[in-house]
Write a structure and sequence with these properties.
- With 145 residues, this protein is α/β, with parallel strands linked by helices.
- It has a single domain, classed as 3-Layer(aba) Sandwich (Rossmann fold), CATH 3.40.50.280.
- It has six helices and five strands; from the N terminus they run βαβαβααβαβα.
- It has helices at 24-35, 49-59, 73-77, 80-86, 107-116, 130-139, and strands at residues 11-16, 39-42, 63-67, 93-97, 121-123.
- A five-stranded parallel β-sheet has the order 2-1-3-4-5, with helices on both faces.
- Strand 4 (93-97), helix 5 and strand 5 form a beta-alpha-beta unit.
- It is globular, with a radius of gyration of 14 Å.
Length: 145
């Protein structure tokens, strides 16, 4: 926390989980986050859940934003919230977005499944960055600006 009542900049850890090499979407989001004043710690591709947790601890991140487009997110992130709790960052915001499942499911069911796993927000593919940025600021009590 900065002095004189100023809040430190928002810090987020971003990246792609698992063997997924689809990086374009997270790069676009990272660019938009930086342009909105957010400090972005980008892990790139091929990350384990522990990579996100370790980076969040090291940087005192406010949120972890994970991208997955290969459809395997369900098995890659199913214990992430519990692992965050075990690591002492159980209240960190967890956002997940992309093509998250292979099976044919309606989006509300997909979203509910990941919310039940402990994610704060879950996004379908091809959303504009303004939505997660506004959600991030709202979830941190900073309003939408």
């Amino acid at each position: 926390m900065a002095s004189d009542g100023e809040r430190r900049p928002i810090t987020v850890v971003t990246g792609v989980i698992g063997e997924d090499v689809h990086i374009t979407g997270i790069r676009i989001l990272e660019h938009a986050l930086r342009n909105s004043g957010v400090n972005v710690v980008s892990l790139g591709i091929h990350n384990l859940d522990s990579d996100f947790i370790n980076a969040a601890i090291e940087t005192k991140a406010d949120a972890i934003l994970i991208s997955s487009l290969a459809g395997h997110a369900k098995m890659l992130v199913q214990n992430l919230r519990n692992k965050c709790i075990e690591a002492g960052i159980g209240n960190i915001l967890l956002y997940l977005g992309g093509q998250l499942v292979i099976e044919k499911k309606e989006w509300p069911d997909v979203e509910k499944m990941f919310i039940n796993m402990g994610f704060s927000r879950v996004y379908p593919p091809f959303i504009v960055p303004d939505l997660p940025i506004a959600d991030l600021k709202a979830d941190l009590g900073l309003g939408g600006n």
